[in-house]
Each structure stands twice: as C-alpha cells, then as structure tokens.
Amino acid sequence: MKIITPATIAFIIVLSFTTSQSIAQKNEDTKNLYTEIVALDSIFFHAYNTCNLKIQAAFYSDSIEFYHDKGGFSTSKKDLLAATEKNICGKVTRELIKGSIEVSPIPGYGAVEIGEHRFHNNQEPEANQRQTGSKFVIIWHQLKDRWEIARVISLH
Question: In which element (H, E) is residue 61 found?
C-alpha cells in the first residue's frame, strides 16, 4: 500500500487548479472569439443586404477563394463584388438561421465559422416559401488590426 505524502497532495491540487484555470481561460477565449465572429458576420451581411459594396470589399481578402455549389469557384474579389452588384443588390437578402453559427479557432491564422442561412428573393416572394436553409463555411483571417474573409464555401 502506497502512502500519499502531503507534497504529493499539494502537487495534485496545484496541477488540478492550473488545469482548470487553463480550461476556463480557453472557454473564455472561445466565447470571446464566437462573439467577435458573430458580430463580424452581422456587419458583413448587413452590408450585403443593403448593397454596401465598399464595406463588403473591405471584408474580402485580396486573395479570396469563393466556392459556390451552383456558381462555381472564384478567386477574383473584383468579379465577386460585380456579381453581387448584378445578381444580389435589391434582389436578394440573407437571413441567418438563429443559433446555427459555430466558431472554432484556427491557431496562428484566425477562425472558421460554420452555419446556416436562408436567402430571400425580393423579386419573386413566392419562391421564398419553398426555400430551406443552406450551409456556409467562412474562413476568417486575423490580421494585426482587423479580420478579413479569406475563404467561403456556400452550399444550397
């Protein structure tokens, strides 16, 4: 039978305290990251819904990669904004499905946002009755002074 010494008990207490503090800090960091990314999503898609191309352009990385299951693949920020102006502005609005966002950190880079949203056709309201949510993934790159959208996967 082994005897547990006071030093061993003290070590276990310190170790468990340090571990729980580390877990609590990680949970707080994740919560803060989630809040920040959800806020960025809201700002970006408000600009999308109101056709503020200047704000959208500020969010997009110059090396954007946009994967769309209907429209294909694009790496041109200019073309992406032109397509938004032509096909979205005044015609379509995006609604986030409440509670659907998940955010995970990408250490040394930024974060990944996964969620569901719904698009409303403002010119053909009857088309909205058939629509269900669609999934999206946004890879956010954290720079020194801001976040930018580096990659988007949009599935319908």
Answer: strand 60-68
- Specify the CATH number of the domain 6-154: 3.10.450.50
Domain boundaries, the chain: 6-154
Question: Which uninterrupted H or E stretch holds 35?
Answer: helix 6-49
Distance CA 37, CA 43 (A): 10
- The pLDDT tens digits for 45-81 are 999 999 999 999 999 999 999 999 988 999 999 999 9
- Amino acid (1-letter code) at residue 23: I
Q: Distance between CA atoms of 104 and 140, rounded to whole angstroms?
A: 10
- How is residue 114 written in tokens? 């996964």
C-alpha closest to that of 132 among 102, 97, 100: 97
- Asked whether 86 and 102 are in contact (CB, 8 A), the reply is no
- Between CA 119 and CA 138 the distance in angstroms is 17
